[in-house]
Amino acid sequence: LCAIAGIWAQAGSALLQIGPLARGKQSIMHRQDLHNALKMLEEQGLRRRRRTLESPQGAHVLVDGKPYIAFASNDYLGLAGHQELIEATQKAVLEWGVGGGASHLVSGHFGAHERLEAALAGFVGQEDALLFSNGYMANLGVVTALVGRGDAIFADKLNHASLNDACVLSRAEFRRFPHNDMDALARQLETTPAKTKLIVADAVYSMDGDVAPIHELVALADRYDAWLLLDDAHGFGVLGPHGRGTLLAFEVSSPRVIYMATLGKAAGVSGAFVAGSAELIEWLVQRARTYIYTTSQPPMLAATLLKSLELIERDDWRRERLQASISQLKAGLAGLKWRLLPSETAIQPLIIGDNGDALRVTEGLRDLGLWVPAIRPPTVAPGTARLRISVSAAHVPDDIDKLCVALQQLAR
Ligand code: PMP
Question: Which residues are annotated as a binding site for pyridoxal 5'-phosphate?
Fold first, then answer.
């Protein structure tokens, strides 16, 4: 316990140990140690700051009292502040109250949860689904319920942090393969002695915006008799027919696939779900600790999400507008000294490289009334600091135009 209880702050390439937490009195964390570690982050350009929104999410937001055109959220369909969802929430709060009151297995499982789970399963073409409070917990729950000591996990290097944390927590052997390298994955699967194998991948990578090689992943899971957990946090609502997600975009169906998606991004609210066979879902009800040992998501949110699902399915024009904005952005930034990564999704990363430069570009944009976050190590690899331009169906052509003109100006 002592060995893992130290807090480590990653500052550039150097790891700075700022003190173990649990080794008796002598080792209690000192305030000065934290102060020094924070200072070091500051000096390395790695200290992150929160901005305070004073309006709903949308293309136009108020931040710290100032209006911005925002390319900073995962509200890809522009639903987070949508009038129909606000009205659905008002109705739902009268029907269900504000809190879940208990965990699902005690007394916190409501009709609204039940109906949402059935609707989600049908929407993504799976037998059953289970709601979690958020995507982080869904990933921790599903991985630790399926594998443990003596099993093996094979994970893409660019997977989301919640998947990586889940893999460590599971105590299974945790092997990572280079991003999208299916040959490396096949070699790892070929040589493992483990009986239960789990492949874990983002369906759409959150900092690069590219889509995983879904057919190849499913073929490898089938060939090596492995589970395949696909995290579709950034594909659900955006990709596939009527936004049914990446699996249906690729017309893939396999009993080995476990589908996970979040409900705080394109769906505009909060929460997550895992979908698969009825047996898988019942196993998670029995064994997923982040499902069992936590208060249920407020049922009013589940009721709101039912409405959100209706809008996702109904409004194909939102996905069409999103695609038009993505094309406009790409055309508008062609020839810029900074390059967009090849991405067909709402996540359009503009690689700047140096941490300080990325910050300066972000600040320059902010001065021009545009909000685009800089993403720096350790979230992305050193030397690949970037602007994560997040496009939404809420943007109009003039918003995209303003961003392109501002970036051209800053590049000069
Ligand atoms: N998976 C991926 C790929 C994500 O990008 C995120 C959120 N950034 C999560 C999981 C976690 O989801 P949530 O925000 O609902 O906890």
Answer: 135-136, 206, 234, 262
